[in-house]
Amino acid sequence: MQRSTDCWRAAKEGDEQDKAAWLEAKRAAEQAESEAWSEQYRMPPLEGRERAVAWGVRCRHQVLAAAYTALVLEGETSDPEWEEIEEAARTITRAGWWIDQRSSEPGDLTELLEAATGADRPTENPHF
């Protein structure tokens, strides 16, 4: 009986290591894609702790991509209207704000951007 328990534990530990490696690779790929997207669309760097910034960059990418799909591609938002939303999104540089919005509905983005406080925006943006 002990032998099968040891085999089970060894197999389980191997599965957990494989899962952890897969998750790490997936996050690294998402991070690289989000950083490339941020550069392509001239998104300013986010502020916060290192881990929060990395997570915030991924969340910002996911939130804005989902909103673009829902509002422009599937909805009735025009390209000029989207550009206004995108400009408003550029003013939010606190990583925590994007992390907090990661589960929001795409249609709520405009309202969420308007409700953001001064703490979520820098007083001076050197990237404009």
- Quaternary state, please? single chain
Indicate the structural class. Answer: mainly alpha
Q: Roughly how many Å apart are the termini?
A: 68 Å
Poorly predicted tracts of residues: none
The total beta strand count reads 0
Mean pLDDT: 88
**Number of H/I helices:** 5
Give the % helix.
55-70%
Q: Kindly estimate the percentage of residues that lie in beta strands according to DSSP.
A: under 5%
> What is the 3D shape?
elongated
Gyration radius, in Å: 20 Å
Q: What characterizes the major β-sheet?
A: none
Word description of this protein:
With 128 residues, the protein is mainly α. The chain has one domain (2-120). Helix content is 69%, strand content 0%.
List the helices and strands and how they pair.
Blueprint: H1 2-40, H2 50-73, H3 79-90, H4 95-100, H5 109-115
Helix pairs in contact: 1-2, 2-3
Which key features would you list for this structure?
69% helix, 128 residues, mainly alpha, elongated
Task: Summarize this entry quickly.
This protein is mainly alpha-helical. It contains five helices and no strands. The protein has helices at about 1-40, 50-75, 80-90, 95-100, 110-115.
